[in-house]
Specification:
Elements lengths: L2 H11 L3 H15 L5 H13 L8 E7 L4 H12 L3 H9 L3 E7 L1 H13 L3 E4 L1
Antiparallel strand pairs: 1-2, 1-3
Length: about 120
């Protein structure tokens, strides 16, 4: 290290914690940088390296029964074994879960059947 840098390091070592924090803030303002940015980038890189767990349970949510509500109610009854009144309530209530925590294939199949009956459906 050059003498100039060593002298600067020695001088900075005499600063209190508050003075050092103030120095960092002033340097960030002057140079238009952030001392926290490298840490955030490193943390984001580490998080990206972790394997992402594949979702295994899905909810089938009815958004709208559509024009053929009776057909949708019939499909809901087939999928859930609910009574007529309960199935009707599900069909008429936007955001209702027709199926909860089912596998991907079951959720996809239920969505297909409900959409064929005229409903607007979302798998979450």
């Amino acid at each position: 290290m050059s003498d100039k840098l060593e002298k600067l390091v020695d001088e900075l070592s005499t600063l209190s914690v508050l003075e050092a924090a103030d120095l960092v803030k002033k340097l960030e303002e002057k140079w238009g940088v952030s001392a926290a940015a490298p840490v955030a980038v490193a943390a984001a890189g580490a998080a990206a390296a972790e394997p992402v767990e594949e979702k295994t349970e899905f909810d089938v949510v009815i958004k709208d029964a559509g024009a053929k509500k009776i057909d949708v109610i019939k499909v809901i009854r087939q999928l859930t074994n609910l009574g007529l009144g309960e199935a009707k309530t599900l069909a008429e209530t936007a955001g209702s879960k027709v199926l909860s925590a089912v596998g991907k294939d079951a959720a996809t199949d239920a969505k297909k059947k409900l959409e064929e009956a005229g409903a607007s459906v979302e798998v979450k």
